[in-house]
Design goal:
The structure holds two protein chains of two kinds. By secondary structure, chain A is of the alpha/beta class. Chain A contains nine helices and 16 strands. In chain A, the strands form three sheets. A seven-stranded parallel sheet of chain A has the order 5-9-4-1-2-3-10, sandwiched between helices. A five-stranded parallel sheet of chain A has the order 13-12-14-15-16. In chain A, α4 crosses α5 and α6 packs parallel to α9. Chain B is globular, with a radius of gyration of 21 Å. Chain B has a nine-stranded mixed sheet with strand order 9-8-7-10-6-1-4-5-11, sandwiched between helices. By secondary structure, chain B is α/β, with parallel strands linked by helices. Classes of the chains: A alpha/beta, B alpha/beta.
Chain lengths: ~325, ~250
């Protein structure tokens, strides 16, 4: 049984979620290949070849692939699947876009956002915003799977898999890419950060959110997140949102400031290794999942925390 | 322009799902059910397109049990013109739903399908993309802005790190993300009016589509609970605990 992993990248660099998806793929088969579909992405393919355990890297390049258009990626992957029993993609916004299209073209189910590989056809995945875990067994000949990357350890480096070119397909004739507006930030990316500092509605304004959260995140070298309430209120941009409908994160340390802990937020961060909650309401549900809770107004607690971090040499 | 909007009846957004003790699934007996929130956003978008004079007809479609008629009535009260229930007591998987919708689209020939990106029960985020694949239509998923023109749609999409804008040739599938709009509450007069709007019921079996499940649910379990944490008194205590835990 051979397995294909579709790399997550931005044409310039390979994302860590690829390494984590390789770990899930290696649980299915020792014959794991990686597809890098992009444009000007040779360096990404070379980086993918260095992941330990990878057999070979396939590189498909075109403008439409570089733009990540679902139709273009599907057109490359579907013919390749003649040689694979499963295709695994990190469940990023990119992967979620094209993977179900591939599944339907192959007339198979998609097994979405797996968090565990039980055996070659049995997988565990969260449903109902993570309030339940479903174990499903697939009867399809070919498996199309998206992987919740935070649930798997990253595969190591040290491989030396060859890079081969493969057909770029016929693009996306009915879709025209117009532009992509990405928020530029010197901070680590939210989905893969080791530390995340998140703010909630208690911040009260976008200015206050930045005044309180940004310096603490910078001090900790953390990515910034936000609750849906804070995003909906306009205190933080859309792509900061952690939760069922935003990003699912599982950092080493998650610091929730002024976040009450609605079910939808907890679904996005409850698998973090250590959770810290700072909230003045001692009954806030966030304290039920927090390893360390500080019942205090963030207005006094955050400056004190900054001082304590400085005192501790941070 | 004719807009088709698939909607799903699911557990209400504010209800916490409870796993059945026999691990056969989530307990939906006597639980409040509502329209999936992303489907509400899709209905709202379709209705706004009609109010702008772009769409001429909005058809809501649901696949589910007889009670899904209530969900369709909600869509009608929000402003959809008519509704179709594809009735089944099975809980079809996304691929089967996409095939049933493709059959209806064959009969209805809409110019565009606007639907939710994900249902909050199965959390698959797959049906729209699958439907686009089956019809060989372009797809614009995770929409946070939609501009419908005569032969195309310009859609802003939420992607990791920002917004991507694409233009798709119609007919196309658009899936709604959270911030596309804020759905309205149906007014009482509109709820009354919705009772008189046409609602057709078709048996799923009559569409001649293979809806056999591809996935067998082995079990449904509760996620592991997090161990009890501690309350700390000061920020300095917090930092020393974090140092001990090895995360600083």
């Amino acid at each position: 049984m051979a397995v294909l992993v579709i790399a997550d990248h931005d044409n310039a660099s390979l994302k860590d979620s690829t390494h984590k998806t390789v770990t899930a793929a290696l649980a299915l088969s020792s014959d794991v290949d990686i597809l890098v579909a992009g444009s000007g992405a040779k360096a990404v393919a070379e980086a993918a070849g260095k992941i330990a355990g990878v057999r070979k890297v396939l590189l498909a390049e075109s403008d439409a692939l570089g733009q990540g258009l679902a139709e273009a990626v599907t057109a490359v992957v579907v013919p390749l699947m003649a040689g694979y029993d499963a295709v695994l993609t990190p469940a990023t916004s990119q992967g979620k876009n094209f993977s179900p299209r591939i599944a339907a073209k192959l007339d198979v189910a998609q097994i979405s956002e797996i968090v565990e590989v039980v055996d070659g056809s049995t997988f565990v995945r969260p449903i109902y915003a993570g309030n339940a875990l479903e174990t499903v067994q697939s009867s399809d000949a070919k498996k199309v799977i998206t992987v919740r990357a935070t649930a798997f350890k990253a595969a190591g480096e040290g491989g030396s898999a060859p890079v081969e070119s493969t057909g770029a397909g016929d693009g996306a004739p009915k879709t025209k890419f117009i532009d992509q507006q990405l928020v530029k930030s010197a901070r680590p990316e939210l989905a893969g950060a080791k530390i995340v500092v998140s703010g909630g509605r208690a911040m009260g304004s976008a200015e206050e959110f930045q005044r309180v959260i940004d310096p603490l995140a910078d001090k900790l070298g953390a990515a910034i997140g936000a609750s849906r309430a804070a995003v909906d209120a306009g205190y933080a941009p859309n792509d900061y949102q952690v939760g069922q409908t935003g990003k699912v994160v599982a950092p080493e340390l998650y610091v929730a400031i002024g976040i009450s802990g609605a079910i939808q937020h907890l679904a996005g961060m409850k698998d973090s290794k250590i959770i810290v909650a700072i909230n003045k309401d001692a009954d806030a549900p966030i304290f039920q999942v927090a390893d360390f809770g500080l019942v205090s107004d963030y207005k006094t607690a955050v400056p004190e925390l900054m001082d304590a971090l400085t005192a501790a040499g941070k | 322009m004719k807009v088709l909007v698939p909607v799903k009846r699911v557990i209400d957004y504010n209800v916490k799902a409870r796993v059945k003790s026999d691990q056969s699934g989530v307990d939906l007996a006597n639980v409040k059910m509502s329209m999936n929130p992303f489907c509400e956003i899709a209905v709202e978008e379709a209705v706004r397109q009609k109010e702008k004079g772009v769409a001429t007809e909005v058809v809501a479609v649901s696949i589910g049990p007889a009670q899904a008629q209530e969900t369709l009535r909600t869509a009608l009260a929000m402003g959809a013109d008519r509704a179709i229930l594809i009735q089944t007591d099975q809980d079809p998987e996304p691929l089967a739903v996409a095939k049933l919708l493709a059959a209806i689209i064959g009969e209805e020939s809409p110019d565009v399908v606007i639907m939710g990106k994900q249902a909050i029960d199965g959390d698959n985020n797959a049906t729209g993309q699958m439907l686009a694949a089956l019809l060989d239509w372009p797809q614009a998923t995770f929409a946070n802005s939609v501009e419908l023109n005569a032969g195309d749609a310009k859609v802003g999409r939420e992607v990791d790190g920002g917004i991507q804008t694409i233009d798709v040739t119609l007919p196309a599938i658009i899936t709604a993300d959270l911030r596309l709009n804020e759905p309205r509450y149906a007014s009482l007069p509109n709820i009354m009016k919705a009772k008189k709007k046409p609602l057709d019921v078709k048996e799923a079996a009559s569409l001649g589509v293979d809806t056999a499940p591809r996935l067998k649910v082995v079990k449904v379990t509760e996620p592991p609970k997090r161990g009890g944490g501690i309350k700390v008194e000061t920020a300095a205590d917090l930092v020393s605990n974090l140092k001990t835990a090895g995360v600083l």
